[in-house]
TrEMBL record, chain A:
Entry keyword set: CBS domain
Family annotation (Pfam families): CBS (PF00571), cNMP_binding (PF00027), DUF294 (PF03445), DUF294_C (PF10335)
Domain Cyclic nucleotide-binding residues, every copy: 13-115
Keyword GTP-binding on entry: no
Database matches in InterPro entries: CBS_dom (IPR000644), CBS_dom_sf (IPR046342), cNMP-bd_dom (IPR000595), cNMP-bd_dom_sf (IPR018490), Diverse_CBS-Domain (IPR051257), DUF294_put_nucleoTrafse_sb-bd (IPR018821), GlnD_Uridyltrans_N (IPR005105), RmlC-like_jellyroll (IPR014710)
Gene3D superfamilies: CBS-domain (3.10.580.10), Jelly Rolls (2.60.120.10)
Signal peptide: none
Protein name as it appears in the record: Cyclic nucleotide-binding/CBS domain-containing protein
CDD domains from the UniProt entry: CAP_ED (cd00038), CBS_pair_CAP-ED_NT_Pol-beta-like_DUF294_assoc (cd04587), NT_GlnE_GlnD_like (cd05401)
Domain CBS: 158-221, 227-285
SUPFAM superfamilies: cAMP-binding domain-like, CBS-domain pair
TrEMBL record, chain B:
Source taxon at top rank: Bacteria
Matching SMART domains: EXOIII
UniProt keywords, alphabetically: Exonuclease, Hydrolase, Nuclease
One GO MF term: exonuclease activity
Protein name (record): 3'-5' exonuclease
Occurrences of domain Exonuclease (ranges): 38-220
InterPro entries the record matches: Ribonucl_H, RNaseH-like_sf, RNaseH_sf
Organism: Candidatus Chloroploca mongolica
Length: 618, 235
């Protein structure tokens, strides 16, 4: 019996159960042996009476679509089946067949239900709906996150009482109040005091130093003249990490915290940082403090360390992307400012654009450069030469900081990608109106753009062009077909049981979600570029349901985390990071997450194929 | 004391009611499919290999219903050796039993009703039946003048049968030696897990899985009757 217990505890969700619950499950098990090809559960047949756990051998899950029979999953030792039918007491939705001689442990229905009732982890793992399972899997990962950063709410950090001063008070009065109360920040507000509106602001000791003393203003200057208003604010329910990120992105140290529109307190960056054991978000400050390029040479290694710190702390993929983006933005600003100092100010405003994963805020570990430059239309004749010089210097310095050149030459040094706004608008328009192969390839890179630096508002200039995609059925259908070109490697799981085949977590993983999210966003005419924000923003208008969009988001998160953990391990071992994982080397939990994610993607790809009739396009 | 001794003698002559009921069966219908029958898979621990000289020390068994091993029917008991019987030190070591443990165990008399209840109306499955069946029959005969009554399947015989068949069908080379008779090695060679320490219950479980795997292999068309199965591995 100990043999069964120790086998079960090697696999999720039994590894989450208290030992006596596993022992009880083991004592109540039945054992059955199936011949090769034997049908264990039949589509539309009698409901499952057991939870089946494969002990030896393997089974295929078959789905009948029309006249075709498709193997959509293959389960090996430690994997379970039969629960959707068992939970609902309904005919199985799939046929389960032994593809080799299979020994299975069978957990009888009443024991299964008792374990589900008594153990939330068990209950979540065996949810009948695939979307729910994926959501729960993600939640379990997040529940293990560092409590200080990812479970503390800003409301828990509000300690000191809130001090309010009128905007018509003088800065001397503000300074006196701060020093009397021993605080570094005041809320500035008119009655009704504390209600968060456009005239709610803050004033900090830093403002007194930088905006009053350094600027030579008198002590009777009014607070309203030097305050920051409207003040940024987060709700008391926001995560501490969210607050820290906002502060980093905006370069601020104080954040008013509100509850239902009323400011209830103030949180400082030190309030948050004090709660965490080690700071994974030191990077942007280091970039700003660096005295020269030499100090930034190991920049990408520091990013890698930050990312692994966040990964260990259990950060969400979007949060990791944001932290890295904050650091990259600081780096770009720093480098471009230094270059402008060296070669003089730009002849016209310009925008330094990053593309692809960096544009989507999804850059994490080492990535190639993907950038472009857009400058204002009314440029003097010397402008192209100036921007060419700037681009060459910038690309060189990025290389020095650890960003390799783009092998496809998508960089601002390429004259094609360093052009005035009107040329960019024309290119975008052509890609949308004439969606040929090259155009589709370009749109997958250039539609995922983000401006990192410069006074030209590139987004405003391109938004109206990109909006042309909405309702453009020809473009969308072509884009849909391109998005369906890569398919989840589901039949692959059968062969991986036998040898050490590899699976590419990018091309047959995250990239498929990125493509779908871009499609839905353009369909909905949304200008978001992040995959998760695209999914969130597009479902109300696009041809994707909320459940499907959320399922895709969960799949994206799980696949990205898996890929990142894998790359992190490779870097730790001193190897070059790749996207390839050897399936049998994954933990049982990771295998399940991978499979379930790919199954959700396959499902949504099928419905996109139906919506766009992609098979009919020539 | 005299009274007790007389009662003892009386009982040895008249077979207990449980044993009589057991012998009456009924036994599974030989024409039915093998998965539909009830089985009890049994293993014993003894002080040695000779039923005439050695004694039973422990019995482990598990049931099979509807083609599924029922772990909730697992049963294991120690058996107290007859008074004055000194258990050899080497067999104590093999079974991880202590003399104190077996000395405090219930007597075969006390164990009999439960044992019979488990055996009744079920096909008995054992690995290398001479030993286990020999010891049980010896115990039943000396105590009550009875013996095992129902059909018995020997997994060691099934292993030989499968080996012969594979050779005839050309699935394995002619010169390939006969399979090992050792339970654990046999289970491992079929890719089956073996259970824990070498004791009567763990070995009964290993035997039960071996039996399911063997019967499944003998039944590629899904129509193997109990009669055919007994022809392949019956005792």
């Amino acid at each position: 019996m100990e043999e069964i217990t120790s086998f079960l505890t090697g696999y999720p969700p039994f590894d989450q159960l208290p030992p006596q619950a596993v022992a009880r499950a083991a004592r109540g098990m039945q054992i059955e042996y199936f011949a090769t090809g034997q049908t264990i559960l039949e589509f539309g047949g009698a409901p499952a009476k057991f939870l089946y756990v494969v002990r030896k051998g393997g089974v295929d899950l078959l789905r009948e679509t029309g006249s075709e029979i498709e193997i959509f999953d293959t389960l090996g030792p430690g994997e379970a089946f039969g629960y959707p039918s068992l939970i609902r007491d309904q005919a199985p939705a799939v046929t389960v067949r032994a593809h080799t001689e299979t020994l299975a442990y069978l957990l009888p229905s009443e024991l299964f239900h008792r374990l589900r009732d008594e153990n939330p982890a068990f209950h979540r793992f065996f949810a009948a709906v695939a979307f729910d399972r994926l959501g729960f899997a993600l939640k379990v990962r997040q529940d293990r996150a560092d409590p200080a950063l990812f479970q503390t709410r800003l409301g828990d950090l509000v300690r000191r009482s809130l001090m309010v001063i009128s905007p018509d008070a003088t800065v001397r009065e503000a300074a006196q109040l701060m020093s009397k109360e021993g605080i570094s920040c005041l809320l500035v507000d008119l009655p009704p005091v504390g209600v968060l509106d456009h005239n709610t602001g803050i004033i900090t000791d830093r403002d007194l130093r930088n905006r009053v003393l350094a600027a030579g203003l008198p002590a009777d200057t009014l607070v309203r003249e030097v305050m920051t208003a409207p003040a940024l604010s987060l709700s008391i329910d926001s995560l501490a990490f969210e607050g820290l990120l906002l502060m980093l992105e905006r370069g601020i140290h104080h954040l008013p915290i509100s509850e239902q529109g009323v400011v209830v307190g103030m949180v400082t960056n030190t309030d948050i940082l004090r709660r965490q054991s080690r700071s994974p978000v030191f990077l942007p400050r280091q970039v700003d403090r660096a005295t020269g390029l030499d100090e930034l040479r190991n920049y990408t290694d520091q990013v890698a360390m930050t990312v692994s710190g966040l990964l260990d702390a259990g950060a969400r993929i979007a949060d990791i992307g944001r932290v890295v983006a904050v650091a990259h933005d600081a780096l770009h600003r720093r480098l471009l400012r230094d270059i402008e100092m060296e070669i003089g100010p730009p002849p016209v405003p310009y925008a330094w654009i990053v593309l692809g994963s960096e544009g989507r805020l999804e850059q994490t570990l080492r990535t190639d450069q993907d950038n472009a430059l857009i400058y204002a239309d009314d440029a003097p004749p010397e402008a192209p030469a100036y921007f060419r010089t700037l681009a060459h210097m910038m690309v060189e310095q990025l290389v020095a900081c650890g960003f390799p050149r783009c092998p496809g030459d998508v960089m601002a040094t390429n004259p094609q990608w360093c052009q005035p706004l009107a040329s960019w608008q024309a290119m975008f328009r052509r890609w949308i109106d004439v969606p040929e192969e090259e155009a589709l390839m370009r749109s997958s890179i250039f539609f995922d753009y983000r401006q990192l630096y410069g006074d030209l508002d590139a987004e405003a200039g391109l938004r109206s062009v990109i909006a042309r995609t909405q309702g453009n059925t020809i473009f969308l259908a072509r884009l849909a077909r391109a998005a369906l070109r890569a398919t989840p490697p589901l039949t692959f799981f059968r062969s991986v049981a036998l040898d050490d085949e590899r699976i590419d977590l990018k091309t047959r993983g995250t990239a498929m979600v990125v493509d779908l999210a871009r499609l839905f966003a353009l369909e909905a005419g949304r200008s978001e570029t992040g995959t998760l924000s695209r999914l969130q923003a597009s479902w109300p208008t696009a041809s994707v349901s909320q459940a499907a969009a959320e399922g895709l988001a969960d799949a994206f998160e799980l696949l990205s985390l898996l890929r990142l953990r894998h790359q992190h391990q490779q870097i730790t071992r001193g190897e070059e990071p790749t996207n390839l994982v050897v399936f049998p080397q994954l933990s049982p939990l990771e295998r399940r997450e991978l499979k379930e994610s790919l199954q959700i993607i396959a499902r949504i790809q099928r419905s996109v194929a139906m919506t766009y009739q992609t098979s009919r396009l020539g | 004391m005299v009274f007790l001794r007389n009662w003892d003698l009386f009982r040895k002559r008249e077979r207990p009611a449980v044993l009589q009921a057991y012998e009456a069966g009924p036994w599974p219908d030989p024409r039915s499919h093998w998965r539909d029958a009830s089985y009890v898979v049994l293993d014993v621990e003894t002080s040695g290999l000779d039923p005439r000289r050695d004694v039973l020390l422990a019995i482990g068994l598990v049931g099979i219903e509807g083609g599924r091993i029922r772990l909730d029917t697992c049963w294991r008991t120690l058996v107290r050796p007859p008074e004055g019987f000194l258990v050899d030190a080497s067999s104590i070591r093999i079974h991880n039993l202590t003399r104190a443990e077996v000395a405090e165990a219930p007597t075969f008399d006390a164990v009999l009703p439960s044992l019979i209840d488990h055996l009744a109306r079920r096909i008995l499955v054992v690995h290398v039946s001479q030993v286990d069946v020999g010891f049980l029959n010896r115990a039943l005969r000396t105590n009550y003048g009875g013996r095992l009554a129902g059909p018995i399947i020997d997994t060691a015989r099934l292993a030989m049968r499968l080996h012969d068949r594979a050779q005839i069908l050309g699935e394995i080379a002619h010169e390939q030696p006969a399979p090992t008779i050792q339970l654990r090695a046999l289970a491992t060679s079929m890719g089956l897990p073996v259970y824990g320490e070498h004791d009567a219950l763990n070995d009964a479980l290993t035997t039960a899985q071996l039996f399911l795997a063997q019967a499944t292999r003998l039944d590629p068309k899904g129509n193997l009757s109990i009669k055919s199965l007994l022809r392949s591995g019956g005792v």
